[in-house]
Design a protein that fits this description.
By secondary structure, the chain is α+β, with helices and mostly antiparallel strands. The protein has one domain. Helices cover 24% and strands 10% of the residues.
């Protein structure tokens, strides 16, 4: 009787099949990653849209946007704030004031507005300012669980920041410059009324994205601290900072001494904090998303014209841009 032969793949055939599968995976993986990023970017856009709606609802109730932060120093709330982001008398930020309009009234009710932020508001295990809030975190940004802990127990971090104008966020002279003024301010404790936005609400950025880092000494994104959820148009020595700029590092008052990070969008220069600022930055490819003062959400390329971008950060510089 003839012997039966066992059927099966030869080694060469098996290698060919594996190679074909590897090629298919290599072709499909970028598409899968792009689909995931598109979903994350859509969620980020929705987060910004909700922030825009919350700011409009706040305006309906209070007849103005909230200030970027309030100061509770010797002059009381609304007094002349210092050009010092480490002052212990800083109080509530715009995020805290907007919580009731973001369906977070229970969290807001845990905050004691009679106390500064650096108090029981931030240093107890159940304090509201230690909570990681998903609706102010961009899903494209790597997760950061580390809180801002320098000088106090801690402030959780997010990715969305309000526009404090075309200048630096803690410079009285920049705030007083009408062509630099944004819809909110830290040093001026200012929240604009719609009538103040003479360039048009569709022509002024309200809020955008910033980067945060896994470092307890870095304030960027710390949503309960005065400078944490803010960005502006100028950095070190007043140099303009466009989205995702690689010509300048961020320079905030609680800097992480991280000026050698290979990812430029995460660098923070501690040596120029009093003369610097934070730029709009994101992990989206090519630019950042921002909500305008009219509530619409736009994507701004990192290659945007510098002068055009600075005009968009100002609410009343007289430059009406039309299409951009």
């Amino acid at each position: 009787m003839p012997k039966s032969r066992r059927s099966g793949f030869t080694l060469i055939e098996l290698l060919v099949v594996i190679a074909i599968i590897a090629i298919l995976i290599a072709l499909l993986l970028p598409a899968v990653q792009q689909a995931r990023e598109a979903a994350r970017r859509s969620q980020c856009k929705n987060n910004l849209k909700q922030i825009g709606l919350a700011m409009h609802n706040y305006h309906d109730v209070h007849q103005q946007f909230p200030p970027a932060a309030v100061w509770q120093g010797n002059s009381g709330v609304g007094g002349t704030a210092p050009e010092n982001a480490r002052d212990a008398s800083w109080g509530a930020t715009w995020v805290v004031m907007a919580l009731p309009f973001l369906d977070q009234a229970p969290l807001y009710n845990q905050y004691d507005s009679n106390l500064p932020a650096r108090s029981a508001n931030s240093n107890s295990a159940t304090s509201p300012l230690r909570q990681n809030l998903p609706f102010i975190s961009c899903p494209s940004h790597p997760f950061v669980g580390t809180r801002l802990t320098q000088d106090f127990d801690g402030f959780a971090k997010g990715n969305y920041a309000v526009n404090v104008g075309a200048g630096r966020f803690l410079r009285q002279a920049d705030f007083s410059n009408g062509s630099y003024k944004g819809p909110m301010s830290v040093i001026g404790q200012y929240g604009a009324k719609f009538r103040d936005i003479t360039d048009g609400t569709s022509q002024a950025i309200l809020a955008s994205e910033i980067c945060k880092v896994d470092n307890g000494g870095d304030d960027r994104g710390a949503w309960g601290w005065c400078t944490g959820p803010t960005f502006g148009g100028r950095g070190i020595n007043g140099a303009p900072m466009t989205p995702n700029t690689t010509s300048l590092s961020d320079s905030s008052h609680y800097a992480s001494n991280d000026n050698t990070n290979r990812n430029f969008n995460l660098r923070n220069d501690p040596d120029n904090a009093n003369n610097g600022g934070v730029a709009a930055r994101s992990f989206h490819v090519g630019g950042v998303q921002a909500v305008m003062c009219d509530g619409s959400v736009r994507f701004f390329s990192e290659n945007i014209d510098q002068a055009t971008y600075l005009n968009l950060l100002s609410i009343a510089d007289g430059n009406v841009l039309g299409e951009f």
